[in-house]
Amino acid sequence: MVDQAHLWDARTAAEYDTPGEGMFAPDVLGPTVERLTELAAGGHALELAIGTGRVAIGLREVGIDVTGIELSEAMIARLREKVDASEIPVVRGDMTTASAGEGYSLVYLVFNTIGNVLTQEQQVECFRNAARHLAPGGCFVIELGVPDLRSLTPGTGGTLEHSEPGYLLVDTYDTLAQILISHHVHFDPPVDGSREAGIGRTPQRYIWPAELDLMAQLAGFTLESRWADWDRSEFTAASRSHVSVFRLSTLDR
Q: Is residue 78 one of the residues assigned to a domain?
Protein backbone atom coordinates (compact mmCIF):
# COMPACT_ATOMS: atom_id res chain seq x y z
CA MET A 1 0.00 0.00 0.00
CA VAL A 2 1.27 3.48 -0.91
CA ASP A 3 2.08 5.75 2.03
CA GLN A 4 -0.06 8.77 1.15
CA ALA A 5 1.44 10.86 3.95
CA HIS A 6 4.86 10.32 2.34
CA LEU A 7 3.57 11.46 -1.06
CA TRP A 8 2.24 14.71 0.40
CA ASP A 9 5.53 15.76 1.95
CA ALA A 10 7.09 19.14 2.72
CA ARG A 11 8.28 19.68 -0.85
CA THR A 12 4.84 18.94 -2.28
CA ALA A 13 3.18 21.20 0.28
CA ALA A 14 5.58 24.03 -0.53
CA GLU A 15 4.83 23.76 -4.25
CA TYR A 16 1.10 23.02 -3.96
CA ASP A 17 -0.35 26.53 -3.96
CA THR A 18 -0.53 28.37 -7.29
CA PRO A 19 -2.25 31.65 -6.35
CA GLY A 20 -4.53 32.92 -9.11
CA GLU A 21 -3.71 30.03 -11.44
CA GLY A 22 -4.84 26.46 -12.09
CA MET A 23 -7.16 25.18 -9.38
CA PHE A 24 -6.56 28.45 -7.48
CA ALA A 25 -7.86 30.55 -10.39
CA PRO A 26 -10.89 32.71 -9.48
CA ASP A 27 -13.06 31.12 -12.18
CA VAL A 28 -12.35 27.69 -10.65
CA LEU A 29 -12.37 28.52 -6.96
CA GLY A 30 -15.21 31.04 -7.04
CA PRO A 31 -17.97 28.67 -8.20
CA THR A 32 -16.65 25.96 -5.86
CA VAL A 33 -17.01 28.19 -2.81
CA GLU A 34 -20.37 29.52 -4.00
CA ARG A 35 -21.95 26.07 -4.44
CA LEU A 36 -20.57 24.73 -1.15
CA THR A 37 -21.81 27.82 0.68
CA GLU A 38 -25.31 27.17 -0.64
CA LEU A 39 -25.16 23.51 0.39
CA ALA A 40 -23.85 24.31 3.87
CA ALA A 41 -27.04 26.35 4.38
CA GLY A 42 -25.51 28.30 7.23
CA GLY A 43 -24.31 25.20 9.08
CA HIS A 44 -20.87 23.86 9.95
CA ALA A 45 -18.82 22.25 7.15
CA LEU A 46 -16.16 19.54 7.27
CA GLU A 47 -13.53 19.15 4.55
CA LEU A 48 -11.95 15.73 4.19
CA ALA A 49 -8.31 16.05 3.06
CA ILE A 50 -8.31 19.80 3.65
CA GLY A 51 -4.75 20.17 2.37
CA THR A 52 -3.42 23.73 2.42
CA GLY A 53 -6.90 25.22 2.72
CA ARG A 54 -7.58 26.11 -0.92
CA VAL A 55 -11.37 25.78 -0.49
CA ALA A 56 -11.75 26.02 3.28
CA ILE A 57 -10.20 29.49 3.50
CA GLY A 58 -12.60 30.77 0.87
CA LEU A 59 -15.56 29.35 2.78
CA ARG A 60 -14.29 30.84 6.04
CA GLU A 61 -14.06 34.24 4.37
CA VAL A 62 -17.77 34.15 3.50
CA GLY A 63 -18.77 33.16 7.01
CA ILE A 64 -18.92 29.36 6.92
CA ASP A 65 -17.36 27.59 9.91
CA VAL A 66 -15.04 24.90 8.54
CA THR A 67 -13.18 22.06 10.22
CA GLY A 68 -10.73 19.81 8.40
CA ILE A 69 -9.31 16.31 8.46
CA GLU A 70 -5.85 15.90 6.93
CA LEU A 71 -3.29 13.09 6.93
CA SER A 72 -0.22 15.10 5.91
CA GLU A 73 1.57 17.10 8.60
CA ALA A 74 3.32 19.10 5.88
CA MET A 75 0.03 20.18 4.29
CA ILE A 76 -1.34 21.20 7.70
CA ALA A 77 1.82 23.21 8.38
CA ARG A 78 1.33 25.09 5.11
CA LEU A 79 -2.29 25.80 6.04
CA ARG A 80 -1.14 27.12 9.41
CA GLU A 81 1.03 29.69 7.64
CA LYS A 82 -2.23 31.20 6.37
CA VAL A 83 -4.77 30.69 9.18
CA ASP A 84 -4.50 29.50 12.75
CA ALA A 85 -6.35 26.70 14.49
CA SER A 86 -8.93 29.03 16.02
CA GLU A 87 -10.12 29.95 12.52
CA ILE A 88 -9.96 26.52 10.85
CA PRO A 89 -9.35 23.61 13.23
CA VAL A 90 -7.86 20.46 11.73
CA VAL A 91 -7.78 16.89 12.99
CA ARG A 92 -4.74 15.00 11.75
CA GLY A 93 -5.73 11.57 10.51
CA ASP A 94 -7.04 9.31 7.77
CA MET A 95 -10.28 10.55 6.20
CA THR A 96 -11.71 7.02 6.30
CA THR A 97 -11.50 6.76 10.09
CA ALA A 98 -10.61 10.07 11.81
CA SER A 99 -13.32 11.81 13.82
CA ALA A 100 -13.93 15.56 13.99
CA GLY A 101 -17.25 15.42 15.84
CA GLU A 102 -20.85 15.19 14.68
CA GLY A 103 -23.76 17.32 13.51
CA TYR A 104 -22.25 18.88 10.37
CA SER A 105 -24.59 20.08 7.65
CA LEU A 106 -21.98 19.55 4.93
CA VAL A 107 -19.03 17.25 4.36
CA TYR A 108 -17.10 17.73 1.13
CA LEU A 109 -14.20 16.10 -0.71
CA VAL A 110 -12.90 17.92 -3.78
CA PHE A 111 -10.49 17.64 -6.70
CA ASN A 112 -10.42 13.82 -7.14
CA THR A 113 -9.11 13.30 -3.60
CA ILE A 114 -11.25 10.25 -2.85
CA GLY A 115 -9.07 8.53 -5.46
CA ASN A 116 -6.13 8.79 -3.05
CA VAL A 117 -7.85 5.99 -1.15
CA LEU A 118 -6.61 3.03 -3.17
CA THR A 119 -9.12 0.25 -2.44
CA GLN A 120 -12.85 0.00 -2.98
CA GLU A 121 -13.36 -1.13 0.60
CA GLN A 122 -11.67 1.95 2.02
CA GLN A 123 -13.50 4.25 -0.38
CA VAL A 124 -16.76 2.86 1.02
CA GLU A 125 -15.40 3.58 4.51
CA CYS A 126 -14.84 7.18 3.43
CA PHE A 127 -18.57 7.48 2.72
CA ARG A 128 -19.40 5.86 6.05
CA ASN A 129 -17.10 8.25 7.88
CA ALA A 130 -18.77 11.20 6.15
CA ALA A 131 -22.14 9.86 7.29
CA ARG A 132 -20.93 9.60 10.89
CA HIS A 133 -20.07 13.31 10.87
CA LEU A 134 -23.31 14.56 9.30
CA ALA A 135 -26.58 15.50 10.93
CA PRO A 136 -29.60 13.67 9.45
CA GLY A 137 -30.43 15.28 6.11
CA GLY A 138 -26.91 16.65 5.68
CA CYS A 139 -25.05 16.32 2.40
CA PHE A 140 -21.77 14.88 1.20
CA VAL A 141 -20.28 16.49 -1.91
CA ILE A 142 -17.62 14.84 -4.07
CA GLU A 143 -15.78 16.37 -7.04
CA LEU A 144 -14.32 13.66 -9.24
CA GLY A 145 -13.03 13.04 -12.73
CA VAL A 146 -14.56 10.51 -15.10
CA PRO A 147 -12.06 7.84 -16.22
CA ASP A 148 -11.03 8.62 -19.79
CA LEU A 149 -10.46 5.06 -20.93
CA ARG A 150 -11.77 5.93 -24.39
CA SER A 151 -8.48 7.72 -25.03
CA LEU A 152 -6.50 4.48 -24.66
CA THR A 153 -5.59 2.99 -28.01
CA PRO A 154 -5.57 -0.82 -28.37
CA GLY A 155 -2.41 -2.35 -26.97
CA THR A 156 -1.43 0.69 -24.92
CA GLY A 157 -1.92 1.39 -21.24
CA GLY A 158 -1.25 5.08 -21.01
CA THR A 159 -1.96 8.57 -22.31
CA LEU A 160 -0.02 11.81 -22.60
CA GLU A 161 -2.18 14.26 -20.68
CA HIS A 162 -0.06 17.41 -20.78
CA SER A 163 3.12 18.65 -22.40
CA GLU A 164 4.98 21.91 -21.99
CA PRO A 165 8.64 22.97 -21.92
CA GLY A 166 10.23 21.21 -18.97
CA TYR A 167 7.20 19.11 -18.02
CA LEU A 168 5.25 16.07 -19.17
CA LEU A 169 2.24 14.42 -17.54
CA VAL A 170 1.67 10.79 -18.50
CA ASP A 171 -1.18 8.70 -17.05
CA THR A 172 -1.00 4.90 -17.02
CA TYR A 173 -3.93 2.61 -16.27
CA ASP A 174 -4.35 -0.76 -14.61
CA THR A 175 -7.89 -1.44 -15.78
CA LEU A 176 -8.29 -4.58 -13.65
CA ALA A 177 -7.46 -2.87 -10.36
CA GLN A 178 -8.89 0.51 -11.50
CA ILE A 179 -5.60 2.19 -10.63
CA LEU A 180 -4.42 5.26 -12.51
CA ILE A 181 -0.86 6.47 -11.93
CA SER A 182 0.07 10.00 -12.95
CA HIS A 183 3.75 10.29 -13.87
CA HIS A 184 5.02 13.86 -13.51
CA VAL A 185 8.22 14.26 -15.51
CA HIS A 186 10.20 17.44 -14.87
CA PHE A 187 13.35 18.10 -16.87
CA ASP A 188 15.86 20.88 -17.27
CA PRO A 189 16.63 22.64 -20.56
CA PRO A 190 19.12 20.70 -22.68
CA VAL A 191 22.79 21.20 -21.88
CA ASP A 192 25.27 19.74 -24.38
CA GLY A 193 22.51 17.54 -25.78
CA SER A 194 21.55 15.97 -22.43
CA ARG A 195 18.56 16.45 -20.16
CA GLU A 196 18.36 15.82 -16.43
CA ALA A 197 14.90 14.51 -15.53
CA GLY A 198 13.02 13.87 -12.31
CA ILE A 199 9.88 11.78 -12.02
CA GLY A 200 7.15 11.93 -9.39
CA ARG A 201 4.26 9.46 -9.33
CA THR A 202 0.82 9.80 -7.77
CA PRO A 203 -1.54 6.79 -7.79
CA GLN A 204 -5.32 6.93 -7.63
CA ARG A 205 -8.11 4.39 -7.70
CA TYR A 206 -10.59 5.75 -10.21
CA ILE A 207 -14.33 5.31 -9.66
CA TRP A 208 -17.12 5.15 -12.21
CA PRO A 209 -20.15 7.35 -11.37
CA ALA A 210 -22.44 4.32 -10.98
CA GLU A 211 -19.97 2.69 -8.59
CA LEU A 212 -19.78 5.91 -6.59
CA ASP A 213 -23.56 5.93 -6.26
CA LEU A 214 -23.55 2.37 -4.91
CA MET A 215 -20.90 3.31 -2.34
CA ALA A 216 -23.18 6.15 -1.28
CA GLN A 217 -26.17 3.82 -0.89
CA LEU A 218 -24.16 1.48 1.34
CA ALA A 219 -23.55 4.40 3.70
CA GLY A 220 -27.17 5.63 3.78
CA PHE A 221 -26.98 8.35 1.12
CA THR A 222 -29.06 9.00 -1.98
CA LEU A 223 -27.89 10.96 -5.02
CA GLU A 224 -29.55 14.37 -5.01
CA SER A 225 -27.85 15.98 -8.01
CA ARG A 226 -24.91 15.60 -10.34
CA TRP A 227 -23.36 18.36 -12.42
CA ALA A 228 -20.48 18.38 -14.87
CA ASP A 229 -18.81 21.21 -12.90
CA TRP A 230 -19.37 23.72 -10.12
CA ASP A 231 -21.28 25.99 -12.51
CA ARG A 232 -24.02 23.31 -12.58
CA SER A 233 -23.48 22.45 -16.25
CA GLU A 234 -25.39 19.37 -17.37
CA PHE A 235 -23.61 16.08 -16.77
CA THR A 236 -23.51 14.03 -19.99
CA ALA A 237 -21.76 10.98 -21.41
CA ALA A 238 -19.09 13.35 -22.74
CA SER A 239 -18.35 15.02 -19.38
CA ARG A 240 -14.80 14.63 -18.07
CA SER A 241 -15.71 15.34 -14.46
CA HIS A 242 -18.65 15.65 -12.11
CA VAL A 243 -19.75 17.24 -8.86
CA SER A 244 -22.07 14.84 -7.04
CA VAL A 245 -24.29 15.83 -4.13
CA PHE A 246 -25.42 12.98 -1.86
CA ARG A 247 -28.05 13.50 0.82
CA LEU A 248 -28.05 11.52 4.06
CA SER A 249 -31.29 9.91 5.17
CA THR A 250 -33.24 11.87 7.76
CA LEU A 251 -34.04 8.64 9.62
CA ASP A 252 -32.25 7.95 12.89
CA ARG A 253 -28.94 6.21 12.37
A: yes
pLDDT at residue number 161: 85
Determine, yes or no, domain membership for 253. Answer: no
pTM given for the model: 0.90
160 with 84, same domain: the answer is no
Task: Assess whether 222 and 97 both reside in one domain.
Answer: yes
Task: Give the model confidence (pLDDT) of 40-50 as tens digits.
Answer: 999 999 999 99
- The pLDDT tens digits for 66-102 are 999 999 999 999 999 999 999 999 999 999 999 999 9
- Cα angle 176, 181, 186 (rounded to 5 degrees) comes to 160
Residue 48: phi and psi, rounded to 5, are -80, 135
Q: Which residues span the domain enclosing 138?
A: 4-146+207-248
Both 159 and 130 in one domain: the answer is: no
